[in-house]
Amino acid sequence: MVTSRPHDYVIVGAGSAGCVLARRLSEDPGVRVLLIEAGGEDTNELIHMPIAFGALFRSDVDWDYSSHYEPGCNGRRIYLPRGKVLGGSSSINAMVYMRGNRVDYDGWRGRGCAGWGWADMLPCFLRAEDNERGANEFHGVGGPLAVSDLRYRSPISEVALEAALAAGLSANDDFNGAEQDGVGFYQVTQRDGQRASSAACYLHPVADRANLSVQTHVQITRVRFAGERAIGVAGLQYGRPVEFDAEREVILCAGTYGSPQLLMLSGIGRPDELAALGIAPMAELPGVGRNLSDHPVSAVAARCAGPDGLFGATSAQNLDRYAAGQGPLTSNVAEAGGFIRTRDGLPAPDIQLFMMPVLYTEEGLAPVGAHGVSIGACLLTPRARGELRLVSPDPTAKPCIVHNYYHHPEDLRSHIEGLRVAMRILAGTPLAGRLADPVSLPASDSDADLIAHIRATAQTIYHPVGTCAMGIDDDAVVDPELRVRGIEGLRVVDASVMPTVPHGATNAPTIALAERAAALIKGPAPILREVRATATTTRSVRVAPMGSAGAP
Asked: Quick one: pLDDT band at residue 408, thresholds 50, 70, 90?
């Protein structure tokens, strides 16, 4: 057993949230911070080349999860990529910079999460951001996170956007500004044509701080306790058992799939399910692993009549252009799109459109042999909720994940209308004149055929949240300060604490969430108690309902 010297904070997971916390907490030179990552360094050149994110799928930097058989998707298993590398999923995502909609955060506040409304979160976004367009009411400069306009716009993306405008959609050149509705080109987390992951922006610039340590290739297997307090973590590094001590807090940033898995492996969850796996219960929190929410997307696609897309972009000439920060290799693939409301009376858009200059079919896993374009319709407001469960006490076993896509009928109602808009764009002027034969298209625009197409082709757009949801109700896993209920010295800081999924990509919201969490953690210094112990208790702690007598 290898045991390190104690740190004040032990952060598990060097993804979008973990890198933010490592930087912010280590700003105090008197605080010792340890950041732990299951994957390795982000040295693979494909990580930093924007167009190449699909080449990272099912590689050694991907956890390579899959859902269980999804009832609403013809019983298919859906591929669920998540980053296993410094930067986490921000090192393998499509880099779209999107904050969501103000109704998301005001909705969190309305559920009892004081301090998480739009007025609270906007300063966190501004503090994080370094937008090349400059500062204004909605944007910041000087923060760690690089936000840029695309260096390259594919010809077919330009034409698809023209078709969307011709179809009656409004133009919007800033989805993170005053209004989210409309279509246009997305801003991206890039700088000089390269990916700007949380590792590149937050971690690497401060890696030489004497009070910050980073350990890679360490898979944490459980949280260690003394009484009701977290005192550290245990795991495996290159197959060897290791332990790390935390004098102040253990902070889980392992993501929507990883954080609830670690809680359950540590005895926090539903005692009957844990006991059935031979895991001694520590605290009863029935919400662990539940409330799983995600954005499903379904697309229509066609081949281009000419060389208007990104097929064959990795030529020697384009590699030279990429070295200068230019050309198609700087494309994030999801170049253009926007937000629409499928019916009147909605408080915010319920569909996001993606206009991609590729044939993005078969979940992005199948080889593509021609220039093409895909128009995706993504459901922003899923009412269905899924669940993550342990299948084994072996911490290296992948959990069982079921998203329950389309379990709620309202989800299909919105999605079929969104897909109709995508079909109208694909068939509209001037896009149709630049296309050859269709590759993925419903048999007709009837409800039945649209539903059949959705069930047969829907995939994740990589935005899972909610499995350690914050709140004040009985199912809340963490309180509004992200502290695990019933346990001292343990927080969760990642997308798993979001009660609902934001309207758009989750990378920027996760970074802003971590900025706010860092401010909460760096608040009044905690009173440290002598809790180090030679043995760890496994006494179960039943958590009282929030607001009742004896509640934490």
From this structure: very high
Q: Which amino acid is at 164?
A: A
- Among the listed residues 7, 68, 371, 463, the single catalytic one is 463
| HSE value, Cβ hemisphere, 13 Å, CA-based, for 501 | 29
Token pair for 126:
């501004």
Are the beta carbons of 109 and 90 closer than 8 angstroms? no
Tokens of 404: 């329950």
CB-hemisphere CA count at 13 Å for 144? 24
Cα 298 from Cα 363, distance rounded (Å): 10
* Residue 482 · residue 113 · CB < 8 Å: no
Which tens digits make up the pLDDT trace of 496-530? 999 999 999 999 999 999 999 999 999 864 434 33
| DSSP string covering 480-525 | TT-BBTT-BSEEE-SGGG-SS--SS-SHHHHHHHHHHHHHHHTSSP
Reported as half-sphere exposure (CB side, CA atoms, 13 A), residue 138 has a value of 14
Contact 487, 268 (CB under 8 A): yes
- Mean pLDDT value across residues 270-292: 97
Please state whether the predicted TM-score (pTM) of the whole model is above 0.70: yes
Annotated active-site residue 295? The verdict is no
Element (H, E) at 198: helix 198-198
> Is residue 366 scored above 90 in pLDDT?
no
